[in-house]
Design brief:
Blueprint (H helix, E strand, L loop, with lengths): L25 E2 L2 E7 L13 E8 L10 H4 L8 E7 L11 H21 L7 E8 L2 H14 L11 E7 L8 H13 L12 H20 L7 E6 L25 E4 L12 H6 L12 H9 L22 H8 L13 H22 L6 E6 L10 H14 L10 H11 L4 H10 L1 H4 L4 E6 L6 H15 L7
Parallel strand pairs: 3-4, 3-5, 5-6, 6-7, 7-8, 9-10
Antiparallel strand pairs: 1-2, 2-4
Helix pairs in contact: 2-3, 3-5, 4-5, 7-10, 10-12
Length: 480
């Protein structure tokens, strides 16, 4: 595969006419392995979008990747394509040049994908689903950060991504030394590989640093505000397809809307039996209504990048779940506020995040359509993008509009966008008004706001938000 590290070289083929893309067709390392025609009828009114599933693999063998049947429900009848991008592990053990190598591979993936998108015989809207394995997430995350920074150069990629599935990937660790240790242990466990003898501490250290770097860039792109993240981690009771090194503390990203699934080691059974249902739960909303896409993009531009949660998974035995206040909060109706306070800041944040995880799990179990809004926001009086309720509202609206498939009798998106173009910004009052227009669905029973360090929010802004919630509650709309 040719590396395209230089931006002057990352130009894909300029052909615009459709070509016959058949199974086995390859473009610069990206190979079309499966092409399934749509079996939907013209008369069907509730259609799924066309889907491209892009596998990005480094260490694992191609036959070990998740099959299309293990990713999508049988009921999905739209046109589906499966593409595989492979990279040898030796490419990522380049020492000081590892970051440059990842950048080149990311641009190679983008160029190849853009080729398949531009030259398809059917120019229909499609949803992109990236499935990354082990170190493949470095390439995917870097590619998304590049595409998000230059939509004109990489048209339609950033805005078409519906889901990311991280299959046993290195995403975080409690400190650089622990991350280095885990990467080292994982690579040493692959001693039968051809590249194993070329391992040196400098290469491992650079690779560990790139894991942090690409993850930070991925989160900073704000893609997780509009696209679903599903992280799969190891079964700790026995050796499964995912190494036990990639546990919940390593293989989980920590964003608000993330779905985490642990591998289940059962003989002759799928390791993730609930994965197809989980992936397809919100499939009808994978492609937002075209009238709202420009509004969502302009709103995304003025929204703060999310901050990762400190915790990674739900702890059922956490004492916060035995508190009377939490039980009363869960049982009540209306616009409910649970204020978590304490002298131990870390303990307080942990308790709040556990409540957040618990609610998020309950929503996934209760709502079959999978469309709900778990939003976490950290206030900071020192950060001008994090000291106002306006910043929370913009994050909430970005997530909401990215999931709109059909808008009926809603506000005119053109008028909302025109207001932004006229003022070159949305004031806090503007965003409050927009939020009020969608209050019943945005702040309904399917939404939860985890507002951390809310005491650092501007007081007048905070008071206005409480007043709006109070007015909303008076409408007797079941909300949380």
């Amino acid at each position: 595969m040719e590396d395209h590290g230089d931006s002057s070289k990352d130009q894909p083929a300029a052909l615009e006419s459709p070509i016959n893309l058949v199974e086995g067709y390859s473009c610069d390392g990206l190979t079309l392995t499966t092409l399934l025609a749509s079996t939907e009828k013209e008369s069907d009114t509730d259609k799924s979008p066309d889907i491209d599933v892009i596998h990005v693999m480094v260490v694992g063998k191609e036959e070990e990747r998740l099959t299309l049947e293990s990713l999508l429900l049988e009921s999905v009848a739209s046109r589906r394509r499966e593409l595989v991008f492979r990279c040898g592990m030796a490419r990522l053990l380049a020492g000081e040049l590892t970051s440059q190598a990842i950048d080149g591979l990311a641009r190679q993936l983008l160029s190849s994908l853009l080729f398949f998108l531009k030259h398809d015989e059917q120019h229909s809207k499609r949803a992109l689903v990236f499935v990354a394995y082990d170190f493949g997430d470095l390439i995917v995350k870097k590619a998304i950060s590049i595409a998000g920074a230059n939509e004109q150069r990489w048209p339609g990629i950033f805005t078409s991504v519906a889901q990311f599935i991280f299959f046993g990937c290195f995403q975080r660790a409690n400190g650089p030394q622990l991350l280095y240790s885990k990467v080292f242990d994982y690579l040493v466990s692959q001693r039968d590989s051809s590249w194993w003898q070329s391992l040196i501490p400098a290469s491992i250290n650079s690779l560990a640093g790139c894991i942090v770097e690409t993850t930070d860039a991925f989160v900073a792109s704000k893609i997780t505000l509009r696209s679903q993240v599903i992280s799969l981690y190891a079964d700790m009771n026995g050796k499964g397809k995912i190494s036990d090194i990639l546990d919940s503390r390593t293989a989980i990203l920590g964003v608000s809307n993330e779905i985490t699934l642990q591998e289940q080691k059962q003989k002759d059974k799928e390791p993730f039996p609930d994965l197809p249902k989980t992936i397809c739960s919100s499939i009808k909303s994978w492609v937002p209504h075209e009238s709202w896409i420009p509004f969502g993009q302009t709103l995304l531009a003025v929204t703060s990048a999310p901050r990762l949660l400190s915790s990674t998974c739900l702890v059922d035995s956490h004492p916060v779940f035995k508190s009377t206040e939490h039980e009363r909060w869960m049982a009540s109706t209306g616009a409910r506020i649970l204020y978590v306070r304490g002298n131990d800041h870390n303990g307080m944040m942990e308790a709040a995040e556990q409540i957040f995880f618990h609610w998020r799990l309950k929503m996934r179990q209760h709502w079959s359509d999978g469309v709900f809004l778990p939003i976490s926001f950290v206030f900071s009086a020192q950060d001008p993008t994090r000291r106002s309720i306006k910043d929370v509202i913009s994050s909430l609206l970005v997530s909401y509009f990215s999931g709109i498939a059909i808008v009926k009798n809603g506000p005119n998106p053109g008028l909302i966008k025109d207001q932004f173009l006229l003022q070159h910004a949305w004031t806090e009052m503007d965003l409050f008004k927009i939020l009020e227009l969608f209050a019943r669905t945005v702040i309904g029973e399917k939404a939860l706001l985890l507002l951390q360090n809310i005491d650092e929010c501007d007081k007048s802004s905070r008071d206005a938000f409480w007043a709006m919630l109070s007015a909303f509650a008076s409408l007797k709309c079941d909300s949380r």
